Amino acid sequence: MKVRLVDIAHARSGDKGDTANVGLIALRPQWYELLAQQVTRERVAEHFRGMIEGGVERYELPNLNALNFLLHGALDGGGTLSLKTDAQGKVYSTALLRMTLDVPDAEAKRLGLPAAA
Amino acid sequence: MKQVVRVAAGQGFWGDDLDAPRRQVEGGPIDYLMLDYLAEVTMSILQKQKERDPSLGYARDFLGAIESILPAIVEKGVKVVANAGGVNPHSCAAAVKALAEKCGAGGKLRIGVVTGDDLLDRLDALIASGHSLANMDTAEPLSTVRDKVLSANAYIGSVPIVEALVKGANVVITGRSTDTALTMAPLRHEFGWGANSWDQLAAGIVAGHIIECGAQCSGGNCLYDWRSIPDLANVGYPLVEARPDGTFVVTKNPHTGGRVSVPTVTEQLVYEMGDPHSYITPDVIADFTTIKLAADGEDRVRVSGIKGRPPTDKLKVSIAYEAGFKAIGTLVYAWPDALEKATLAGKVLRERLDRLGLRFDRVLTEFVGANATHGRLAGDQSNAAEVQLRFGVRGSDRSAVERFTREIAPLVLNGPPSVTGFAGGRPKVEEIVAYWPALIDKSVVKTSVEIVQ
Fold it and tell me: Within chain B, which residues score under 50 in pLDDT?
């Protein structure tokens, strides 16, 4: 079953120099494990391919049902140097939420995941 | 010792809601009001103001805030901790003192002034004695931009703020104090946390991180269930009710809008997060993977479990330097084929800049309404109702950037059709003040505290 990240998580992003961070938070605690399994560093790097210049780091915060991603080289130099609309990386959060996951039907049912429309 | 200390946030950055400090002190009982005015490049703006007038160089919004809360300071005993001093904490204190006298509260304020963070006059000596102040992101030594430096300030921690409170200050004014110390220091002072009380100090830092961006933890900019967040027009700014053991509740004053919930607080916790195991401050390293959140009634979130460990022997230094010029011009193209028209306009503009022989370090074309923020992830936008071409240039040659600003308007008559949205006139040339983060040995930064009455 296809599951949209926007239906199972919320997110906030910010900046530190030329790096954007995205904190991805499961909408329900029982969905955190799915995020941790599927929204890997590699998957996120592929998602943002061509949009960021550097690598991706991932940190796990099971205590907050959250993952934190650092997207390096994401802000056209960052801060006041950047010419981007999103110079401070404020909406990389929802850009990440555009990701779609493939979840086996049985697991999706067990977790009560909403299907992509 | 008090068993509960309430610290409220009244300002999340310089330019935040001017009325929030008054609402915080009048809306419910609080012990401390914390006001954060300094973003990364704010110090350089203040430095420029000080160069024009030596009595300036601090966040002047602070005077309005103080005027609006003077009765609470004088009658209710609310204490204020603010990094409003910018690059001129003494002048800030003098202005607050004059204001208090004008308002008939002269003699009622004990103003603690924290200095020692400002390294601008010491830079050459520091570089000469081997402190390279290398850029933390690029590793370049500061000497490469030394002649362009506008301001240089070490981020200082809770110790001098606590010292000011011990000396009886009811208004503490700092320069480049860390945002989080403004919240942690009052708790450390009230609860007598020692320099090695790592878990409690870390808890104070986490409390500070949660409320330092004002309403961003109490319903503002909250994605979770955003439609249901009530009355943002009267959004309640956050406060923490802290206990001596380092646990605290995040809440807001009654009869205010917004929301404090596990999701709103979680969103703020991950904001601008780096490695969550190591949130480094001058006083302590806090481990964000140990934070436990629990709902504690309506608009209340209980925070516990926080672990801390000893800090490093370095302080971060915020340096601002002149980094050339930029300008951004926009035009709006309408359906049909809005994106295609805007794309052609961008190509035409680039070609004209090339023919004029103008060289820039960076040229960026974006299409607002189509893909400016989400890039190719936004999918097919060929049927957009309108698309804004947003064209930016950056370079060290001011005249080239200036010349660019004259190339936007002609496109209205001599470029692709269905164009509008140019009424704002020529783009402005902006001087870029860039941020240079560095580290310095703690031992070279000596803070001092003076009480002004």
Answer: none
Q: Is 1.25.40 the CATH number for B323-436?
A: no
Residue A117 scores a pLDDT above 80: no
CB contacts, 8 Å: A36 with chain B = none
In this structure, the strands spanning B32-35 and B5-11 are parallel
Confidence at residue B134, expressed as pLDDT on a 0 to 100 scale: 97
Q: What is the pLDDT of residue B325?
A: 98
Residue B425 has a pLDDT of: 85
Q: Give chain B positions within 8 Å (CB) of A84.
A: 364, 366, 372
State the DSSP H helix or E strand holding residue B112, giving kind and residue range, or none if neither. Answer: strand B111-115
The answer for residues whose C-beta is within 8 angstroms of residue A37's C-beta and 6 or more apart is none
Contact B434 A80 (CB under 8 A): yes
Give the pairing type, strands B386-395 and B314-334.
Answer: antiparallel
Contact B302, B428 (CB under 8 A): no
- Asked if the bond preceding B336 is cis, omega within 30° of 0, the reply is yes
Domain coordinates in residue numbering, chain B: 5-117+155-311, 323-436
* Contact predicate B144/B53, CB 8 Å: no
Alpha carbon of residue A64 to chain centroid: 15
Residues of A in contact with B138 (CB under 8 A): none
Q: How buried is residue B44: exposed, middle or buried, by Cβ count under 10 Å (0-12/13-18/19+)?
A: buried
pLDDT in tens, B133-186: 999 999 999 999 999 999 999 999 999 999 999 999 999 999 999 999 999 999
Cα–Cα distance, B119 to B135 (Å, whole number): 16
Q: What is the ipTM of this complex?
A: 0.98
- b/e burial code for range B239-276 (CB count within 10 A of at least 16 → b): bbbbbbebbbbbbbbeebbbbbbbbbbbbbbbbbbbeb
Distance, in Å, from the CA atom of A14 to the CA atom of A21, rounded to the nearest integer, reads 5
Rounded to whole angstroms, what are the CA distances from B74 to A16, B70, B171, B240, B405?
Answer: 39, 6, 11, 22, 53
pLDDT value of residue B19: 94
A14 touches chain B (CB under 8 A): yes
- The closest of B122, B172, B176 to B146, measured between CA atoms, is B122
Q: pLDDT at position B44, please?
A: 85
Lookup: tokens for A38: 């599927």
Question: From the list A17, A25, A59, which residue is nearest B275 (CB)?
Answer: A59
Q: Stretch A71-95: mean pLDDT, rounded?
A: 96
What local confidence, expressed as pLDDT, does residue B308 receive?
98
The residue among B27, B159, B31, B161 whose CA lies nearest residue B83 is B161
Q: Coil, strand, or helix at residue B141?
A: coil
pLDDT at A8: 98
Which residues, numbered 256 to 295 in chain B, qualify as contacts with chain A under a Cβ-Cβ cut-off of 8 Å? 263, 266-277, 288-293
CATH architecture of A2-106: 2-Layer Sandwich (3.30)
Question: Collapsing DSSP states into helix, strand and coil, what is residue B192?
Answer: coil
- Listed in order, strand segments (DSSP E) in B259-385 are 279-280, 285-287, 292-295, 301-304, 307-309, 314-334, 362-368
